[in-house]
Amino acid sequence: MEGDMFSGFGNGTQVDGKVLQTFQKSFVQVQDILDQNRLLINEINQNHESKIHDNLSRNVGLIKELNSNIRRVVDLYADLSSSFTRSMEVSSEGDPAGTFKSDGKASQKRIRSG
Q1: Does the pLDDT value for residue 110 go beyond 50?
Q2: Number of neighbours of residue 44 by Cβ within 10 angstroms
């Protein structure tokens, strides 16, 4: 699969199979963190509802862990965005119909018909 090309976009853009594997790995990491956050939030809610001092004190650490996980998800999405932009820049080189500028925004060139 390494080096395989995948034409998965409607505009015929080809994406390297290794790039897709990287995206898949990142999305799995994000989902794992989000699943962990769901469990943390449930525990935080239970502790809050119990109004037991030790449980409420434990929430401080759980909320810090939750915040750290949220930062990790943001970082993973930022990395995914950069990787996607780079892969689109590489795959659209020489494509007169659409390119990505260095700021990551799409730039469509108008093609005049006959």
Answers
A1: no
A2: 19
